[in-house]
Amino acid sequence: MLSKRTRLGGALALVLLALLINTGGASAACNQFGGVSAGQDPCAPETSTEAPPVAAVPGTTPVPTVPGARAKLVEGMAIAPASAPPAVKKVIEWANRIRTKPYVWGGGHGKWWDTGYDCSGAVSYALRGGGLITSPLDSTGLMSWGEPEAGRWISVYANAGHTYAVIAGLRWDTAGSADGTGPRWYADTASVVSGKLAVRHPLGY
User: Which of 44, 47, 153, 158 meets the CB 3.0–4.6 Å disulfide criterion with 205?
Assistant: First the structure.
């Protein structure tokens, strides 16, 4: 008969083996931008030593919500509506991560977690949080992304020169900040950029 010490050692070995297997599986699922397939939680930003402003693993920290179907802007941060689908709440959560970053042309296209973001990089990063996109798209790519016309929860407006999104009633845009350009939330949903824009939305939202 095995001693208690031997049985305990065997049990610990099995637990450690299971942890190693699970960790390897999570890493294998990530693509070059640190994302995973649609419908799953994206991987944490891995291309910078800088810690993200919120929990590295989405969903581990309770996120506050507001009643109704419209997000609320509080000191530059969007608070998701309680009635929004989980994917929409994740889009808002991930946009909040970069809401103080500066505008950087091409930012967010070579890697997800970047020092700054351009218009399409900021929109792509937010959509990636909800599992609605698997790799960043430029403004031209977003003109034909998803489904035509405005969505109930998320609408992306894009032309060859600029793109922004309206998410749960708030504008997510890199243009129009009194404090300088960069990804920011705005209560005003009207575009500050002239020109015709294609209107697209993710299927189901």
Answer: 153
